[in-house]
Structures are given as C-alpha cells and as structure tokens.
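Fold sample X.
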Amino acid sequence: MSRSKSFLTRVRAAAATLGPAERKLGELVIDFPGELASYTASELATLAGVSNATVTRFVRRLGYQSYEEARLHAREERATGSRAYIAAAQAEAPDLANYTDHDSRNLQLSLAGVEIEDIDRLALRLLSARKVWVVGFRASTAFAVYLHWQLTQVIEQIVAIPGAGQTMGEHLVSLGPEDAVIFFGLRRRVAQTDALLAEIVAKGATLVHVTDEGVEPLAAAAWHFRCETSSPGPLFSHVAVMGLCNLIANRTIALADRAGRERLREIERLNDLLGEL
C-alpha cells in the first residue's frame, strides 16, 4: 500500500464524507490516533461507542483493505515520535511519583553505559577543535543553544546552528576535519537529518550524535549518546538529555586548563565592568 499520505491525513481528508457513526469514530481517531495503533478493531469500536461494522467501513473509506493494514500504518507513524500518538482517550490519574521515578530511571539508563573517561576524551576533543558546531532543530534547538551557552565559557570558537534565516549549507561549506560537531537528533527529526549527518561525516569532522533511544547506533559517529525519553505523560521526557549536557559541560570546563581559566576570568571581569550580573 502506498504511504504517500499519512494516516491522519487520510482521516482528515475523509471527514466530510463520513456518516454520523463513522464521523464519531473519525473524531476519536483524529484526537487519539494512538488508540487505533494499539487496540483491536473490537476494542476501538467499544471505546468509540460504534459497531465493529462501522470500524470496517471506516478503514475501507480511508483506502485500507483491512483494519490490520490501517493499524500497521498508524504504528509506523507512531514510531516516528509524533506527539499526537501519545495521548490516550482514557488517561490515568496523574501521579507525581510516576514522573519523578520515570525521569530518574531515564537518566540512569541513559548514562549507565557511559564512562567518565569517555566523556573526558570528548571534552578534550572539543577543546582542541578548530571550531565546535552545535546543531539542533525543533525540540533539539533548545539543547543545542543551552550546551553552546555553557561551553562558550571555555571554548571561543563555538556556534549553535542554524540561526534564524540561515541555511545549513552556509555553515557546512566551512566545515573541516579539524572541527567537531555535536548534533542533537531527538525525535521528531527533520527530514534532512540523514543527509546532514552524511555530509558532516564526508567533511571529516568529528561527529557527536545525541539522540533518543529509538535511533539505531551510528557507526560513523565518534560518540553516540542514546537518551531515554519515555514519559508517563503525553510529552517526551528530556531529563536525560539535560543530564548529559550537564556532564559534558562540567567536564569540558574542568579540563579547559589554563587557557580556559583565563577566559573564564576575563568573562567575569567584563561582566563586572559592564554591571550585567
């Protein structure tokens, strides 16, 4: 079956042609598409308050031969990390302990296989690079900007990209083997991610890849950190990502040696002079 149209696109396009019962089912699926990805046809019919026959007519109107074909397509889209597939029609009562325990587990699992010596090797590579490029799109932008802000205290030639109105080509043209690239590729990743990573590797730059747990290990990356992002709520948890950033920044500053300390002192002098803080 063609995947040229997403599952939700099919549902929205068919909405105007649906009968009352099918429309009721369609509204549920649009609001909570993850239910179709998870439930059997009978379970979905019960949840929507319609008949099994209505479910069958509904998926065929969307262009699927069977409910299983529709569910497979929905599962494929859920795997991309769309937040639309996370919300549940019958959500459990919130529990603070669920969140704190889950975030703690995510952090522990994400750093379980990381050795401090490996982080130190990364820190020294960043400090020796001609230039450090920190890349992030969508949700990853916040982490790229944050890590850039922390590392700029000891690394002079560092930039967070892309900036407003900039294209990646304007930056990649300057990339070389003496550079290091920290690429945040958290779900949902932009469509050009694989092409960008391939170009970074082709340029010979050292690649540090930071992703969620759903991304397969990238052999071309000098370092690939896969952070657990599952959450008891409808949004991904990025606690482990921030913990990793904290670890990298702290060890880089600690290993910056004399040049780093001199830069820090000068930053503090200028802050005092300008009365900014």
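Fold sample Y, listed below.
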Amino acid sequence: MIREGRNRPASRGSPPLAAIGCWLSVSLLPVLVFAGETTTMKLDELWRIGGDSGDDRQFFGVIVDLDVDDEGFVHVVDQQLNRISVFAPDGSFVRRIGGEGDGPGEFRRPYRIFVSPADEVCVIAGSPRRIQRFSHTGEYRGDIAIPADDAGVVPVLMDVECTGDRVVALSYIKPNSEYVLPGARVANHVIHALDERFQETARYHAETVSEDDSKPVWSERPSLASRWDVGADGRVHVATDFLDYRVASYLPDGSADRVITREYKHRRRSAAEKRAVHEWATLNPNSMLPGTEVIIEEFDKDVMSLHARDDGTLWVLTSRGMYDRPAGSLGVFDVFDRDGAYVGQRVLLGEGDPTRDRYFFKGDRLYVVTCFTAAIATMVGDGEDNRFSDACDEPMSVICYDLGTKR
C-alpha cells in the first residue's frame, strides 16, 4: 500500500490577535486545583507490530522515536538499524525511508523524526549531526541547515513538535568553539519556536546549566525531556520545576498564559530505586569524564511527562501515577481542561508499563513502544550488562490503542 498523493487538512494556524488579547487578560497567578473524579478507561487495542510476529518488515532493533502525520501514517525511527519504517493507520507496512550510510538520503544514529509545516518527513541524525528532508514517498529532498543565533551558536535540536505552520523544539545551546578549554562554562536547554528557515521566532522556557570539565557532575535536573508538549491550539506547556507540580503554559507568541499547579505529595524513592537510577546513569562509562560525581535525587520528579491532547485537554503523568498505578493499568493521568482547570484522573487499562515502555499520544490514539528502557540499555551498554535487558526478554513492538475522547 503506497500512497502517491496526499490530501491534508488545512494547517492549524496561530489564533487571531483578539483571541491572544483575551488570553493575555487571564490572571498569571497559579491555578490551585483539588481532587476531582477518577474514571477508568479500558483501551481497545487496534493493532500491534513487531515482537515475535516473524514478519521481517516488522522487525525492529531499537525504536527511539515515533511520529504520525495528519493522515494517520506512523513513522517509526530505528536507531540501531538506521532506518525509518512507515505503517498505514491500520498497522500494515507501507515503506522504508533512508538507510545506513553517509550519502544523500542516508544517515547514522537517527534519533528524532517530525513532519514539517512544509509537509516533509524530517529525520534528525546524530552522526554526523544533520536534518534530512524526505517526501512522503521516501525521496530525498536535501538537508536543513540550522542557522546560528546572534552569538554565532548553532542550536542542537534534541526534540521537535510541529503544529500548524510552526516548529517547536527543545534545543541544547552550548558555547560555540571548536576547542573548548577545560573549566567552567554555561549551556542552555531552550524550548523555542522556529520559522520555515528554522530561525527562532519565540522563546518559551530556558534552563541554564553550568558545566565544568574540571569538576564533572551528572544530574537529573537539567533534563526537560518528556516535560513539555505543544497543543493543537499552539500553546506550549512546560513542567518548569523538577520537584514541584508546576506547569507553565505559553501562548504561541511566547507570552506567559497561566501556571497550573496542584497539591501533591512528593514521592520518595526507595534505596533500590535510587540504585537503579545510579545504574542507569553509569550504564555507559565512556559517556562520562573520569571522576564524574553522580547526584541521585531523594524524590522522583512530580511531573514525569506531559501530553497535550487535540481536544484541548492536558494529561499529566505524575510520579505516583507512574510507579504506584493500579495493576493492569498503563498509568494514572491527571487531566486539565482547556482553561487549565483540573477535571479528575484517568486510569488507562491495557498492556504497557511507563517505567520500561515509552508512550506517544497522537490524536485519538496512544502508541506504546515496548521494552524501550531495555533496548536503550542494550544499545549503549557493553553488551554484557543485563541489569535492564533482563526486564524484557522479547523484541520491541508497537501497540496502537484507541484512546478516544468521548468516554
């Protein structure tokens, strides 16, 4: 099943100025919310691919990212096999894009994929670091050159989400020097909007990170991965604090809209859980400088991940919703409406474990990439360390659930 033509719905543009003015009039004080109703949702599995299917077209090495275009076609990034596999909305195989190599249309270590506002499939690869453009039928269309900022620094795109005519990215910006002398320096993790030329048009959130090669430190706190998302209305939501339940929402132009918070008791880690975090941090010793101090937090992050749904709601997976969830559930999610008001919790029933799998909320579907933690550990480890791989003894798979909104 190969598509030659595409009919895409109109792009979701930015709200009119009048609407932006209305939102700017909203109080910027935190919205304190309390417990609401809890609803249990039994998810219907639509299809699954990979695992022990025996189909070579569904064989995966290490899935690191997944994106879905407006027609429901699923693009799966396999970093180990250096390829993109495309599946139809019903789960049937369509085609592969790219392959291992250094030539046009080839890449090594792909780690992110997104469908750009120009309706092109864009693949971010790490070796060498570049962004390549493909048509939806897999034809290579060239590379995207990321321009330098005013200081001459070229941002490194770590994660990307697209909505309407905008690209929103989590970027790592470090001193631009071919040779960085040992010592202290400052880097930034930035969530910002980019135009069609990938130049910054708005900045939503930034965290400054001090780095010192003479006193190297590994810490959990700088990471913003999974702690932000973009809604269909263009709002950008960011869990700005590692330990506190605090989500800042920004309008498309970068102005602050509101802060959502909730009374929440921090979840203290057990000794075994702290050891597991330490083992994960030190899984690949070659990635650390000698003498690196590893700092393990006493508590989990309050907000583990954010998911902005197309219906305007925001779903928050907390540490307790992840680790203390009911048996047989994929997690317990706090749900906020489009005005930032808390409406209750949703317990999702199905096959999936947020401590070892990775979740992708796309439209009215939830895609669960199984064995994610074990696969990453196997790829970056020395091949003999089975502390994480023992937790998953089957090939990776993708499970597609009907998430629905009318429940």
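Sample Y note: Residues 271-281 form the longest helix (11 residues).
Also: Residues 1-34 have pLDDT under 50 and may be disordered.
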